[in-house]
Amino acid sequence: MSTIKRISLKYQSGNVLLVCLALMLIMTLWGVSTTKNVTLTLESNYNARMKQLSFEAAEFAVAQVGELIENQITSTQLIASSFDGSEGRYSLVFDAANEIDFSFPADGDFEYKNEKAWDTGRSDMSFIEIEYDASFEKQPLAIVEYLGRTESDDDGPQGRYAFRVTAIGWGVEGLASTVIRTHYAFSI
């Protein structure tokens, strides 16, 4: 008969314990690292989604303002009366005294890329407020500027009427924002 030699736990050295503890430490660090990476990935995906939603809101605002000016501006007299600095409508066309009519704001400096410039509480500017989605904390805002005619010759301005639309949209919680600026030109 053969005899099986039994190893008694009391004779094991501390090396096995150290190896087990080292493996446990490595596995713990790996688990924490993986959890941290997953969390960062989820946050990154969330931020990307909010940025996309802010872009969609700004894009919607640009489209709404484009429709608004094409449907409401049906004569040159309406340009002069509509782009008076109120309701987010401004004009960058020079008057007879060669001064800009109804520029924005009073100092002529509007940093449209700066989110703080879009404060609806400003006394020197007004914005077109667009109804987008009630679940969004902040609704999109826009301004439209009349830029004048697209062409000019010796007889004066000719061609289509040009407008610049600048809009900002925010994500659901109002933390991510996107600004879009585009130009429209059409004949009256």
From TrEMBL:
Domain PilX/PilW C-terminal, chain residue ranges per copy: 113-184
Pfam families in UniProt: PilX (PF13681)
Domain of life assignment: Bacteria
Protein name, entry field: PilX/PilW C-terminal domain-containing protein
InterPro entries per UniProt: PilX/PilW_C
